[in-house]
Specification:
The chain is mainly alpha-helical. It contains five helices and two strands, in the order H-E-E-H-H-H-H. Among the domains are: about 1-60, no CATH class; about 70-100. About 65% of the residues lie in helices and about 5% in strands. A two-stranded antiparallel ribbon has the order 1-2. The longest helix is centred in the middle third of the chain and has 43 residues, at about 60-100. The chain is elongated and about 85 Å long.
Length: about 130
């Protein structure tokens, strides 16, 4: 069914799985649209083959160039997010220290056991006015 024109978008993987790149997905969507418009499969394939032969930009080399830029952008975003997480972690630690030093200790529970609620729960109750 698929000859050389369409095989460029298809690869075989483990256990003979079929992998299709983004361009291949667009080709299959185009074939489906042509079928939905009333074309038979052979006509749809011929139309798509002609469209592919007239579109040299529909190759994987363009995708590879774009993916390099994408990887660089993603790496920069990851570095930024890691730095933001570190800032947040430091702020959380600082706030925990403030709460521990400024909140009074909870009274002991019944029979000298640990109280049934934590400082955080008591703080939430205090803030909500309960």
């Amino acid at each position: 069914m698929f000859d050389g024109d369409l095989r460029q978008f298809i690869q075989r993987g483990d256990k003979n799985k079929i992998f299709v790149d983004n361009n291949g997905l667009e080709v299959f969507k185009r074939i489906k649209a042509l079928e939905d418009s009333g074309k038979i499969m052979d006509d749809a394939l011929n139309i798509v083959k002609q469209e592919i032969s007239h579109q040299p930009e529909m190759t994987t080399t363009r995708h590879n160039n774009d993916s390099g830029k994408l990887v660089e952008t993603l790496e920069n975003q990851i570095e930024f997010l890691i730095s933001q997480m570190n800032i947040k972690d430091r702020e959380i630690s600082r706030l925990q220290e403030v709460i521990e030093t400024r909140l009074p200790a909870l009274p002991a529970g019944q029979n000298g056991q640990q109280p049934s609620t934590s400082r955080w729960a008591k703080l939430k109750q205090f803030i909500k006015g309960q």
